[in-house]
Structure formats: structure tokens, C-alpha cells
Design a protein that fits this description.
The chain is an all-alpha fold. It has a single domain, classed as Up-down Bundle (Methane Monooxygenase Hydroxylase, Chain G, domain 1). 77% of the residues lie in helices and 0% in strands. The protein contains six helices and no strands. The longest helix has 35 residues. The chain is elongated, with a radius of gyration of 19 Å.
Length: 195
């Protein structure tokens, strides 16, 4: 949910949003290093003698999952940068439900990572419905923000920033679906389109 800017919140607020946002931005380099490690391990796996088809499927799926996770981290960095801007802007009234959209994205990502760890392709396939839910709320939030901009010009700058956040969250949902598709390929050898 959209919250008031720092000037209208308790005095401990000024460092809250920028501090969290800065931590997300700084954490991106660690994720990039992990992605590089996965890439290196993938190439090492290709040198290990075993069934070529098995290894290639494993390598391709794990590399693809790694790429999607790294891109999700990039979206998080973009959201963090927007959050720092939004914290300094006047609030939109009534509030827009970005928090619900973010919560759905977190839930979907957690579920996908659980499926990857458990190597549960059926669980991964069930994520399609959750991506549909993310898409529905994204379009609702988008439409709400456009209406707020038309209703009051004061809303234009914060609404544009919130639309950017909502767009990044929706893309996270799409990337989680891509992870689920990679897991199905890894486990079943099937190329499916879950989104």
C-alpha cells in the first residue's frame, strides 16, 4: 500500500526507505557474483564424463534459472531506486495497492524456489495461476494510477514512479514463470509455456 512521504511519517523514517533501497542496490553485486559462479559450475559440469543428454538438460536448465534469478535481482534494484524517489514525493490518495502486488510476487518467487530445491515439476506448473493473479492486479494498479493522474496533476510524478515499480513487479512474475518452465524441462524434458 502507498504510504506517506517521510515528512508525514514518524521521525525514524528518513533513513528507512533509502537504507533498504541502498541495501538492495548494493546486494546486486553479490548476486552477479553468484550468477558468475553458477556459469563457471555449468561449464565444469560439461567437462564431466556422463550421459550427454542428462548433463546438457541439467546444465541448460540450471543456467537458465540462474539467468532469470539474476534478472529478478536487477528488477529489485530498479524498484529500490524508484522507492528512494517515491519516498520524497507526496502520497497518492487514496492509496494504490502496490504492496499486495509485491506480496504476490514474493509468494510466487518463494514457491518457485521451493519447487526448484525439491525438483518438483508439478508444483512448478501450478505457478501459472499465481502469475495470472499478478497480471490481474498489475493491470488494475496501472488503470488506478492512470485515473489518479487524470484526476489530479499533482499525482503525475508519483504515479509514474509507481507504474514503473508495478511494471518491474509484473516482470518478476514473468521471470518466475520462466524458472518454472526451466524446472519442468529439467525434470521431464518437456518444453512448456506456462505463462
Amino acid at each position: 500500500m502507498w504510504t506517506a512521504p517521510c515528512s508525514e511519517r514518524p521521525t525514524h523514517c528518513p533513513t528507512e526507505t533509502p537504507g533498504v533501497a541502498d541495501a538492495v542496490v548494493m546486494g546486486d553485486s553479490a548476486i552477479n557474483r553468484l550468477h558468475a559462479d553458477v556459469r563457471r559450475l555449468v561449464f565444469e559440469m560439461l567437462r564431466t564424463p556422463t550421459s550427454v543428454a542428462e548433463v546438457l538438460r541439467e546444465v541448460l536448465a540450471e543456467l537458465y534459472i540462474s539467468i532469470e534469478l539474476e534478472r529478478i535481482a536487477d528488477h529489485a534494484v530498479s524498484i529500490a531506486k524508484e522507492a528512494k524517489t517515491i519516498a520524497e514525493l507526496p502520497p497518492i490518495d487514496p492509496a494504490v495497492d502496490i504492496e499486495k502486488l509485491a506480496g504476490y510476487c514474493r509468494e510466487q518467487l518463494r514457491e518457485a524456489l521451493g519447487a526448484v530445491v525439491a525438483r518438483d515439476a508439478a508444483r512448478a506448473q501450478s505457478l501459472t495461476l499465481k502469475d495470472d493473479r499478478i497480471d490481474r492486479i498489475y493491470y488494475r494498479v496501472f488503470d488506478d494510477l492512470i485515473e489518479r493522474m487524470h484526476a489530479n496533476q499533482r499525482n503525475i510524478i508519483p504515479a509514474v514512479a509507481l507504474i514503473s515499480v508495478a511494471h518491474h513487479l509484473e516482470r518478476v512474475g514473468d521471470r518466475v514463470t520462466n524458472i518454472a518452465e526451466a524446472l519442468v524441462f529439467l525434470e521431464d524434458g518437456q518444453i512448456v509455456a506456462l505463462g
